[in-house]
UniProtKB/TrEMBL annotation:
The keyword Ion transport applies. This is ATP synthase subunit b. Its main location: membrane. Belongs to the ATPase B chain family.
Amino acid sequence: MTFQTLFAASYHIYLGNAIWYLIVFALLLLLVKHYAWGPVSKMMEKRRQQVIGDLDSAASNRKKAETLANEREAALKNSRQEATKIISDAKANAQKTSSKIVADANENATSIHKKAEVEAKQAKTDAINDARGQVADISVAIAEKVISKNLSAKDQKDLVDQFIKGVG
């Protein structure tokens, strides 16, 4: 046997085996594709969709969280403004109330002062009238003693009026 025949014989053996290996490989490839690759691909696609969904959900949740945080911040700012407004309104009301109380007290004091003046004038008038009456009685008593006679009421009044004019 020569080298060429040996090579040719071995070539047919190897070529036949190679074809057989290729056919078996192709068959195995088809079986793997049908029974393993399809389910694995479906599973991987489901997993990919789930990951995409989770990422979208996380992004959506993050946006919601940011929106809620902004709303809370705005609400806090509004509540601070409302508190400031309430405090300023309370101060203004307190100032108005204080001014009203002071005005009422001044008005009351003025009223009391005027009433006291009126009462004082009335008391003075009453005192003067009372004093006139007493002076008249005293004058009549003096005049009776001096004149030793009783005067009539008209005469007494005339004497008192002349006496008061003289005293005034």
